[in-house]
Design a protein that fits this description.
Strands 3-4-5 form a three-stranded parallel β-sheet, covered by helices on one side. Helix content is 38%, strand content 23%. By secondary structure, the protein is of the alpha/beta class. Helix 3 crosses helix 4 and helix 4 packs parallel to helix 5. 25% of the residues are buried.
Amino acid sequence: YKGVVFTYDCHYDGDFNNNEHPEGAVFPPHCIENDKGYYYFGRLKAYEDMGDSAIEFHKKRGYALESSIINRLVEEYDDFIFAGVVTDICVFQNVLAFYNAAVNKGKTIKITVDSKACASFAPDREQFSLKYMKEVLGAEIV
């Protein structure tokens, strides 16, 4: 891989306890900073250990990366593989954001979603999201 971008979904206890974040109304607690479910493991951990070719961002409060970061990555790369939690929020929103950035630039990019490296709390929403990314956004689902 030329480069791997890692986005840590970063939440805090208050996001779910006090409804300080919109996800707290829909999703159970997940990706609490420095908690067990916050760090990568398995196949994703192997990618993270790539050293200098791995780029890391910590996403806070928003559903997708900041548009300036997405625009820069879309200018630099043509091929993106997405994975992670939660499939029907973070993965879906980032795929949509990268797709829109590419369309707005008149650039064609390849989007792949590794469904075996994704997870969700709601299987029906996850399947809807994967189907939408494939059928509407043209993502390859593996």
